[in-house]
Amino acid sequence: MTFSRNKSHEMKRRLLLGLCNNFAYVVMLSAAHDILEKQETRNETASTSASLHVDFQVGNSSNSSIYDCNPVSTAAVLLADILPTLFIKVFAPFVIHKMPYGVRVLFCAIMAATSFLLVSFSSAVWMSILGVIFASISSGLGELSFLSLTVFFSRSVLEGWGSGTGAAGLIGAFLYSGLIQAGLSPRITLLIMLVVPIIMFISYFFLLVCPPSLPQWRTKETEYAALVSEDRQQLLDSSDDEEPESSTTEDQPTGPLSFRERLSVIRGLWRFVLPLGVVYLTEYFINQGLMELLFFHNIFLTHAAQYRWYQTLYQLGVLLSRSSLRWLKIRKVWILSVLQMLNAVFLLLAVRYLFLPTVWLVFTFILYEGLLGGAAYVNTFHFISKETEDRHREFSMAAASVGDSLGITVAGLISLPVHTYFCSL
């Protein structure tokens, strides 16, 4: 009973950490349209050209387009929000074990707070993009670190992490959209959200109970590996009532993985990473390449409001599916990638030929998109945790996180020319 209660508490703390870690990243994507629109408004005010003033009054410099486009695609914000994360996830797994977890989390909280301040007080596009980059650094390093951290606890905490990251999407997008809809400015809204990095700091350093083997403030590479192996095995033996692991820690070497071992582990992870990357490529192509163009004239929501609520419904779908692990496990993630590709093709055709009659149909497809993406994420990491050898598990969880970021990066690069094409029509 006591162990079950402790496990429940750890899940709640992991949920809170997942929520805080992804919050800034999600808010920046929800604010992408407003970030770009705000800078265009400032350019309009500063301009002394009457003709330019007329163009901006209508909405933007591409006002002849039927899609009411911003001059710069929201994919530009997406790339600023994901490229630093991708860089971290590609290179950090090889060196991050030298940085204690406490230092990582403190750095992530500082980066998240800085991102909110920079974007809220920005006076130029480059300053806003720099703030988005800081949010990306915080989210990327945090995700990699917290996924690795799950191996120090019972495997059930992965469900708490998945639910927390899903909740971050919904709460972040809904809170941002709701406060803007209520009349607050984007600047005030972002300043209010400074409370989230503070909650992240408190949750990790004051609420989370860490095992003694965890390298909190300094690395303990030699003694640490043996302690980690022992702690993990005890947790698995006492808490996991699923089928036994395919590997054991007996007769395995201790100490940090060698570079060659890490490369070998990465080769074995492609069967998980590739389907996850395809799911995220197609869904973020929808989010940042098509959402802004799925605009309905003369309805109760403005263009900017439609974009914000698209993001909110997407995050609702992510939350629901990332919280479904205890009821439904999907081993064949490639099925989700095929379904997401079909969804992207359908919405691309809907943008090109404008055959969807109402915004409510778009809401439905966006919710479905979020369900597929969240399910792919949480099932991928569940089966990596379950099927990877004990000694490789911490590195595997960190290295596999590159899959979603790589897919999102490719989606951003594709979305830019697609935006240009449609806005030229």
TrEMBL record:
Membrane topology note: Multi-pass membrane protein
Main location: membrane
Transmembrane segment boundaries: 15-33, 75-96, 103-126, 132-153, 165-184, 190-210, 333-355, 361-383, 395-416
Biological processes, Gene Ontology terms: lysosome organization; regulation of intracellular pH
Region of interest (Disordered), ranges: 236-256
Signal sequence extent: none
Subcellular location field: Endomembrane system; Lysosome membrane
Superkingdom of origin: Eukaryota
One Gene Ontology CC term in the entry: endomembrane system
One Pfam family this sequence matches: CLN3
Keywords, ordered alphabetically: Lysosome, Membrane, Transmembrane, Transmembrane helix, Transport
Record-linked SUPFAM superfamilies: MFS general substrate transporter
Family to which the UniProt record says this protein belongs: Belongs to the battenin family.
Protein name (database record): Battenin
Species classification: Eukaryota, Metazoa, Chordata, Craniata, Vertebrata
